[in-house]
What we know:
The protein has four helices and five strands. By secondary structure, it is α/β, with parallel strands linked by helices.
Amino acid sequence: MRILGLDLGSKTLGVSVSDETMTIASGITTLRFEENKPEEALEELKKIIEYYNVKQIVIGLPKNMNNTYGDAVLRTKNFIKILEDNFSIPIYEQDERLSSVSANKVLISADLSRRKRKKSVDMVAATIILQNYLDIRKGIKNG
């Protein structure tokens, strides 16, 4: 069974997938769409879900540092509803606070230019979100 990891932005959707053993998350791509219209990415997402035979989706929930909900959480909750309406797959939320910060640190340490980091940050954030979820499922503590 494979699990799909998602990191939703205002114009992008970072996508990652687990291996068959649900141990390791790997980045796949970053889907782009018109600002605040993530439904435009559904057709490509459907192809990815079918190709990898995905049985579960984990999406990052971008809560504020004080654990409150802001506009980004509301945007994500709306997208979860769209996913539920279009796919018959269980969808789980994963706290994603600081995942983009961590993703940028990984990309900077890889010595990527700002332009290349911008193209990859959402995919790497989706990978971090999914890896955290996989580790929690297996009882592995991070850091």
